[in-house]
Amino acid sequence: MATRSKEAYIKSLQDGRTVYYKGQRVTDVTSHALLKTAVEHAALEYELSEDAQHREPLTYTLPGTQERFSRYFKIPENAEDLLRRRDIIDLGTRVGGTFFLIIKEIGTDCLFALNLIGTRVDDKHGTNYHERVMRYYEYCRDNDLAMAVAQTDVKGDRSLHPHQQEHPDYYVRIVDETKDGIVVRGAKAHTTDTVCANELLVIPTRTLGPEDQEYAVAFAIPMDTKGLKLIVSPFSHTDHNTFHHPVSARHHLVESLTVFDDVLVPWERVFLKGEWDFAGPLALTFVQFHRFTAVSYKAPLLDFFVGAAELMAEANGIRRAAHVREKIVKLIAYAETVRALTKAAAWECKMLDGRIAVPDPVITNMAKWYFANNFHQHVAYLQDIAGGLLVTGPSEEDLRNPETAGYITKYLGGKKGISAEDRLKLFNLIRDLAASDIGGYNEILSIHAEGSLEAQKLTIAMEYDTKPSVEFVKGLIGLTW
Amino acid sequence: MATRSKEAYIKSLQDGRTVYYKGQRVTDVTSHALLKTAVEHAALEYELSEDAQHREPLTYTLPGTQERFSRYFKIPENAEDLLRRRDIIDLGTRVGGTFFLIIKEIGTDCLFALNLIGTRVDDKHGTNYHERVMRYYEYCRDNDLAMAVAQTDVKGDRSLHPHQQEHPDYYVRIVDETKDGIVVRGAKAHTTDTVCANELLVIPTRTLGPEDQEYAVAFAIPMDTKGLKLIVSPFSHTDHNTFHHPVSARHHLVESLTVFDDVLVPWERVFLKGEWDFAGPLALTFVQFHRFTAVSYKAPLLDFFVGAAELMAEANGIRRAAHVREKIVKLIAYAETVRALTKAAAWECKMLDGRIAVPDPVITNMAKWYFANNFHQHVAYLQDIAGGLLVTGPSEEDLRNPETAGYITKYLGGKKGISAEDRLKLFNLIRDLAASDIGGYNEILSIHAEGSLEAQKLTIAMEYDTKPSVEFVKGLIGLTW
Amino acid sequence: MATRSKEAYIKSLQDGRTVYYKGQRVTDVTSHALLKTAVEHAALEYELSEDAQHREPLTYTLPGTQERFSRYFKIPENAEDLLRRRDIIDLGTRVGGTFFLIIKEIGTDCLFALNLIGTRVDDKHGTNYHERVMRYYEYCRDNDLAMAVAQTDVKGDRSLHPHQQEHPDYYVRIVDETKDGIVVRGAKAHTTDTVCANELLVIPTRTLGPEDQEYAVAFAIPMDTKGLKLIVSPFSHTDHNTFHHPVSARHHLVESLTVFDDVLVPWERVFLKGEWDFAGPLALTFVQFHRFTAVSYKAPLLDFFVGAAELMAEANGIRRAAHVREKIVKLIAYAETVRALTKAAAWECKMLDGRIAVPDPVITNMAKWYFANNFHQHVAYLQDIAGGLLVTGPSEEDLRNPETAGYITKYLGGKKGISAEDRLKLFNLIRDLAASDIGGYNEILSIHAEGSLEAQKLTIAMEYDTKPSVEFVKGLIGLTW
Amino acid sequence: MATRSKEAYIKSLQDGRTVYYKGQRVTDVTSHALLKTAVEHAALEYELSEDAQHREPLTYTLPGTQERFSRYFKIPENAEDLLRRRDIIDLGTRVGGTFFLIIKEIGTDCLFALNLIGTRVDDKHGTNYHERVMRYYEYCRDNDLAMAVAQTDVKGDRSLHPHQQEHPDYYVRIVDETKDGIVVRGAKAHTTDTVCANELLVIPTRTLGPEDQEYAVAFAIPMDTKGLKLIVSPFSHTDHNTFHHPVSARHHLVESLTVFDDVLVPWERVFLKGEWDFAGPLALTFVQFHRFTAVSYKAPLLDFFVGAAELMAEANGIRRAAHVREKIVKLIAYAETVRALTKAAAWECKMLDGRIAVPDPVITNMAKWYFANNFHQHVAYLQDIAGGLLVTGPSEEDLRNPETAGYITKYLGGKKGISAEDRLKLFNLIRDLAASDIGGYNEILSIHAEGSLEAQKLTIAMEYDTKPSVEFVKGLIGLTW
Fold first, then answer.
1. Which residues are within 8 A (CB) of B302 and not within 5 positions of it... i.e. 6 or more apart?
2. Disulfide engineering: A438 pairs with which of A239, A248, C49, D421, CB 3.0-4.6 Å?
3. What is the DSSP string of D101-157?
4. DSSP characters for A15-74?
């Protein structure tokens, strides 16, 4: 089949999955007032791939075949593959109004990691995970499936290991094993776009010790699996007024608390089972690919900062103010530093096992850390240039009401030639993405998505080899220890 | 009469004022679904003053009388008066859930400025503004009136002076003069809590030149004045679910675009009319008092950051992590630096004209600048400690739905002894104030309210005398120029 | 005797103390080429006190007497005393060309701490330290002695407690006890101006445990005590060319490694002996006073930043550049924030034991932390405004050499009216204090003197009571734990 | 000839050039006590190229020849050439103890710019500069010459254009023209390593207007040209004690005020003469190459920060402290971000005129800006980890003096196994490069060398095309202006 149509994708989500939204069971996510926006956002992935203009970059063929598969499934073998992956993530996010499309990106990040780690587990423990993973990977690729990944456990007391928790289920674990497969229990927090996916991939969230064996589990299940429950968060959406919320009324992601209520996973979909020594490597390898995805999809949001600041400065008549120019240069440097580091991570990729190119871990994590450490400050620059009307402006209804329309049209114009309505559109856009519920969501994402600030710091510390620098310094003063 | 009851205050707002909300004329702000929350928030000012516990600090007597007036009207004569003013602003804001009560603070800030500047205009131009101001001041004080202040003009092209604008009405101006008074036209942006006020004080927003004479106007009008139209912004409110929005469902401010459609102002309420050379001094003197108010009312919000971070760290089991402790110390230092600088501004106050104590302008502006320059970063620290569930958590309805309640209760607990519901309350509180529409409003306020970052920078540059430092340095190297 | 003359002070240093400088035994510090500059700098303290203009602020009388003592000895009893203490430290430092005079400041900081802790040890352990301390205090005060304080031990492996060290002498300790007193051994690092002091006060540097008992020792000795050796660091001085080093050729401090080679301390000069539970409180109480001294003496250095930036901007013709104005405002805000917080610490002082006013610990530490965290960045602003000639300019000799003088005079002038020589003076001054050996010394001091950044962070965490903030937040959402 | 020997290079500097140091005429720079260190440092360039281990990377051949030329002369034609250029700059700087070797780097940066701009001037003005430049380039390449570049004029009042200055010679200008060539007058500030160069290339420092025509001049002269005077700054050197100054006693650069006292430049060495419209482009093109050189040579200094911090943390026993680990990660991220951006600038290079690959200007300037904006803060991290002994430690002489050696050896050891002497070596190294005269020099360089912070900001603003971002944002809200 290779690539699917948007329609086929949407139809595939009507599978009886168990979804709750604001206390109600959702029978069909594709027609639910709010969730359908998320579905339509995700569907852009399929729409783009069928679009003649984008079909070439967004798909690829296997050697000896004509069939075109979604390029996200292309296992990266060199810098060029990673750069093209970056480009299509950027493209999708741009079309998605700064929200990435996610349903191919995250799943393939996970499949690449399972591919790599599978072999290693097999080598050490004599398992056959790699073969299972590859068969599952081909199934997803050939059917052009949408995937979600559940990694972050609910964790309980974050200072304790899984087996030390008050509650044994604070991390997803294997509670039984039958001839048909394993039975898992637990819950994963903030899994994104489960409601828009066909498949859910589940992997551990941290390094484990020997006493945490039952928590070392990785697997994949279809979304209509019995016992799988999605409790959707209401906090990352807004209403459908496209004047007030020009982006988020059309594009958003959906976060769920994803509960595994004694879910049976067939053996061929089990990719880790008790090999606790590989929980950490699997978690980290996924995260390695996924942080590269992260810094790839952040670029359009930062481009939005630059463009919005320029337009707002123009509309307000303050483009020539020195402090405004300084802030715009900072916004540019922020966006382009993230982008340049992302590309550098691709250019400096490492071939693992001679098979898969992984973006340089230090540079990827630096890019992500730099992005995350500086996000709020750059939001402030944009808010500063925009002005207080961001949050004190009138509603669309006032602009349409004949009693008040005249006042708004007259008084909220900006620099000569810039209408009040255009200026309000700009304010609304900036507020929508950077000073609102969605703005808050974006801020939290900057810190917590794809691993927290601390996680990136830790990864840099772990992955960076200080030896050459240490030897250089020793050489300068003749130290011999 | 002196102090009013809460009920009398609320009733006084039912005066036929012209208010629009989302395209609808609001006939009674005290019963309007959303605006009444703002009214009830403002009414806390009256409620507190009648509360036996607070009556003493919140009121004062005039020499030779027994009557108790609202302390906000007390003209500051020394550091002690300013410190007590700071204390009651802090108290009111705390009771108001981090939102200040405003309807006395801002009006008296303006009255003190009019009081000071009135005399100066009179001295130079032979007017009798000071007498008018004092009569009006006594009227407000004796009737315990709620006041709003409209200062920021809509401005059009911010790089042009008022008289250079494409549109002559981009700054409020005098368009006519009759035997009864002056007629004014224009609009002021983001005037806070006009809907909750009895009186509106209007002053210029910037320094003017001789060609801007018609823009040099200050006055006061009751809210039901003909031609005064309030177009309320819908962006600073949330719904009334107190689980999802524990503070903003109960407390908020209301911003309006305030239109003067040829409003007649009686002579005795005109406080500046064409004396363009005093527009700047009046604007700045108001702002001087008002920035002191600002840094006074910011303290409880920053205390909230500290308390929320501590509780969240405890709930998540991460209190002992070094980076968490560092962030909490930064939050403490942020809150206490703002508070200490505010007090220092009071301690170092200047007596103007031997009558009125003004907080030290350099320290006040440093406090405000420090607050504003660092707000977003400290929001980030709080969000960092809280975690992603801030914006991905389930709804109250899911917590109440028996099908899902068990999962939430089981899986979202934190450190031993801390229930999922308590943890969700904490997430909701933090999201409500620091990662949501209201969070965005707070961020914008940090930058733009009471003057932008640039305005504070400029004031410091203007008010600070570098001569002693310059002379010190010259002395070190014997420079004689 | 009360206050001494400068001459008497200098003469008192010729006491046969054991001092080494660059491998040579120094027989007389007052005539040593380099050390005499430090002595003359310290002597300004005495000179100023005898100066009619400053005698009043710099001295005080005891109730019922006429005699004037150095005001540094005045035990602070209220905010006013602390503010005056701040003022005279500021004055001395200004006269000292941004280097504080130290020989009264640090000793009295220590005496106040010994005074407070003495009583507490006596209360718990039945000792008579307070009486000893008071007798010693009166001796220093009445003879107007110059004092140094040795606190920081050499520490060895900083991750280990004293008794765990490879070497038992890495912290100063008691090695013997005789009828005449105790015998101490060890070394203290970077003790400032020992060579300029009459007396050396020694206190512990950290909290100790019961196994560290022998390290719990405080005492005072004269500088000529047998076994006391001062190994002076050569790194904090420059040569005596006052054109190249306009300040440091005239003013500097001297740091020594201070070795106690089995020094006998008479009983009446022992102020702590084995009471390990009071080592921490004594260290912290000293530091509390001393950090207040620190932020008091930093102010003139920061004023120098402001004045030098203004003059340099003028000389270079860049005063109106927006980025220059921004940097100057930041320098102003930096200086005045430190100063305002210092005063706030005085205004909010706590009375301990009803006898001694201690500057508010949280505010003092915030002031110090703010100073230290921001020092390097503000050095950068000053260097930025000054320009590259700071470190690439010609020597005085070239300016005096007729072959080259003309070129220098012609080409290194700045804005019209500003001569090359004056501009070079400015460059030299800024380099001397902020881009040189002394500049490096100042940078290190900003971080490490009076406790490191981490120490201040820790103190804030320890001293700040988060309970009110926590209760406020609990109240907002009805938490009951 | 192609590459020269170190000896031939050193001998070539004995050419009678006019050099002044501290008021004395220097007759031979290669034997002058201080300057010879700079010469020997520069000579490493020649030594390395003859070293079998490095000859391959440091040299290249021309098509069809066997001769090996210094690779610095290789005109970059693609990313690979730029990356190799980066690598050899990094190598040379590493061998040079963090100081770059400069005498090939800067000259070729300038030659590439002259090459590019020459053609453009010729195209517009019908001149034959490109041919002159190429002949001169071949002369330098074939004779393996050492070059310095003089760009920064002394500038007088920096707010005025050259022709507006009080003094017409504040920018180097043409004062006469003869049949033999042009006569130039003026002075350039802080030209680096003129004393170590054979040739001096001179170019304008800024954009000029038509009234500044006489200032539009570029040329090259040998160092022994009549009228060329070098007044060397004494501020960037230290003494030769390699214990106290382990790097700067062996390696340093020399800065001079470079005076053109009516110097005659032969026609074939004139590369711009009055074409004021190309002064700016030439200045900027040079700077573009030179900022790439800058960020290339900064890497080893930042590696030194990392290595020194690691070793110092180890020696002090604080490696496991959370704040230390955080600081080290920041130092790593700082070094590697600069390096990754440098490489990204190469990877994203632009081919100009189809002939020469120029590093991407936005990324290069971002790299430089990022480096410069963050330097002082990272110096602070290193100083923080090292501790106060950096500037308070004893001298080598004390370590050698038998009376004191024992104390130092005993007391200044660190973690078990780390001797006092090794620890002092580390302190001395860090002080030498980061808390001393040289440390100040490094700080000033970070801000001012290769263009100030403001210059980089301006270049980013100028070179970055915001249109794609602006169009993206317009598309999101349907703006049509």
1. B331, B334, B335, B338, B339, B371, B378
2. A248
3. --TTHHHHHHHHHHHHHHHHHHHHH---HHHHHHHHHHHHHHHT--EEEE--B--SS
4. S--EEEETTEEES-TTTSTTHHHHHHHHHHHHHHHHSHHHHHHHEEE-TT---EEEGGGS
Amino acid at B95: V
Instruction: Note whether C340 contacts B: Cβ–Cβ < 8 A.
Output: yes
C174-189 burial code (b ≥16 CB/10 A, e <16): bbeeeeebbbbbbbbb
Percentages helix, strand, coil for chain B, rounded to the nearest 5?
55, 15, 30
Residue B426 contacts C where some CB pair is shorter than 8 Å: yes
Beta strand segments in C106-254, E: 147-150, 173-177, 181-192, 199-202, 217-222, 228-232
Q: With contact defined as beta carbons under 8 Å apart, do A223 and A15 qualify? A: yes
CA distance B326 to chain D (A): 9
Instruction: List average pLDDT for each run of 10 residues in chain D, which is 481 residues long.
Output: 90 98 97 96 97 94 92 98 98 98 98 98 98 98 98 95 95 98 97 98 97 98 98 88 96 97 98 98 97 98 98 96 97 98 98 96 98 98 97 97 97 95 98 96 96 93 96 95 82
Strand C173-177 relative to strand C181-192: parallel, antiparallel, unpaired? antiparallel
The 10 Å CB-count burial string (b at 16+, else e) for D105-114 is: bbbbbbbbbb
d(CA C62, CA C69): 8
Report the SS3 class of residue C458: helix
| pLDDT tens profile B336-363 | 999 999 999 999 999 999 999 999 999 9
Among chain A residues, the shortest Cα distance to C322 is held by: A322
CA pair distance B269, B111, nearest whole angstrom: 12
| CB B42, CB B105: distance < 8 Å | no
Tally of CA atoms within 13 A in the half-sphere of D78 that contains its CB: 1
pTM exceeds cut of 0.95: yes
Tell me how far apart the alpha carbons of residues A260 and C308 are, in angstroms, rounded to a whole number. 67
Subunit partners of chain B (3 or more CB pairs within 8 A): A, C, D
User: Is it the case that residue A360 has pLDDT exceeding 60?
Assistant: yes
D119: Cα within 13 Å, side-chain hemisphere: 11
Q: Are A18 and A25 spatial neighbours (Cβ–Cβ below 8 Å)?
A: yes
Q: Do D311 and A473 touch (CB under 8 A)?
A: yes
Neighbours of A183 (CB within 10 A): 17
Q: 110-129 in B: which are within 8 Å (CB) of A?
A: none
Q: Does D322 touch chain B (CB under 8 A)?
A: yes
Q: Do C229 and D404 touch (CB under 8 A)?
A: yes
Three-state DSSP class for residue D385: helix
pLDDT digits (tens, 9 = 90+) for A160-215: 999 999 999 999 999 999 999 999 999 999 999 999 999 999 999 999 999 999 99
* Mean pLDDT on C436-457: 95
Residue D178 CB coordination number (10 Å):
9
- In chain B the first and final C-alpha atoms are separated, in Å, by 62
Q: Which residues of C touch A324 (CB under 8 A)?
A: none
Q: What is the pLDDT of residues C83-118, one digit of tens each?
A: 999 999 999 999 999 999 999 999 999 999 999 999
pLDDT at D202: 98
Task: Please tell me which residue of chain C has the smallest CA distance to A324.
Answer: C322
DSSP H or E stretch at residue A362: helix A361-386
**ipTM > 0.95 (yes/no):** yes
Kindly identify which residue of chain D lies nearest to residue B321, measuring between CA atoms. D322
User: Nearest C-alpha of chain A: how many angstroms from C338?
Assistant: 24
D358 beta partners: D350
Residue A1: what pLDDT? 55
